[in-house]
Amino acid sequence: MKDFWYKQEDCRLDMRNFEKDYSVKSVREILSDLQKEKERFRRSETWRRHVLDAATQFAIIATSPEGVITIFNSGAEKMLGYSALEVIGKLRLEDLHVEDELLSYGRELSREFGYEIRGFAVLTIKPQCEGYEEREWTYVRKDGSHLPVNLIVTVVRSDAGEIIGFLSVAQDISRRKKAEQRQIELQEELLRSEKQLTLGRLAAGMAHEINNPAAAIKSDLSMLWKLVSALPESPQKQKMLNIIERDREAISRIESIVIAVKGAYRPEQWHFVDINKEIDLQLTILHRLYKGRIEIVKQYDNLPQIKVYGSEIGQAILNLLTNAIEAIEDEGRITITTKNMLDKITIDIADTGTGISEDILPHIFESFYTTKGKSKGTGLGLSMSAQIARRHKGRLYISKNIVGRGATFTLEISKDAENG
Question: Do the strands 406-414 and 306-309 form a parallel or antiparallel pair, or are they unpaired?
Fold first, then answer.
């Protein structure tokens, strides 16, 4: 295959045809013309190289028709971490791509074209048919890290229409992707705020409606207790007192739930909370999920009240407790430990559940990642909780994990989060 760039050999003097082609010129004139021609091509080659290297914000990569890399500009070196010497003639274009993306798009193209398309053809079949293709891909850097890019692949043809190579131009879109993700998070945060406000109003209304009849029932039960207590001793009297006591406990439980629901939806502003009480509040809300099968062990330190934003810390604790409860399939134990540190408060939530497998561990804080199925989870619980921790100048991490024996999540909250 002919190279697309100038070769010095093209300017060598063919002495066999010298007398025929150059009989009217002196040798000196011929050599001078050749030298000028070589200089012109040298400058052209230098100009081409400088143009490619000046495009530092773009990875420009040319390949042979078979996919072997022939050009690798400085922008590609900067973007991917390889030097040109490491890739030219040694790597293929598809070696720079995430394999799963190539396989996935290859299946899509195979269905479209009616035959199997894989490897380098995944990147070049559309350019061959349409001249070029623009698509988002993920490059794999030399260090193994991933980089999202917008990639344009163009077919290069000779004057005769023969394919002599392919040219790819990639632009780093990682900042754009982060901005898009941030926009999604802001929209989700806005929706959560609106939802919190709506639920807060609803909770306040429900609390008022429930508290009034509950207070009346509680008052009647107290009066009934006094009346029955005054009766002569008998089995019926003791039975009635037992019934009244159960009803009084039920009313107290209703009051606790109302208080918990009201406390779960606070205004979106900074305010002081007692973290130990916040944990108890969330346990009250989740009581039906663990009662009778999971032992709750509380190891609370003496904590100062700290400022938190809205209901966010409560939401993070709720998410962690919910995950701990769901990790325990039958019976088990959840140990909640709070610690008063120098500049922060820590909350450890340890369960005796299934633990987290090694293949899942790297992804648990990713948005929309879930192993529960769409009907049971959105995959936002832990990512939201980690974001809440960061807002409070803290962090959320797994401090202990044993597959088959349980995991411990640690939530750190700064005592000075409001000024973060």
Answer: unpaired
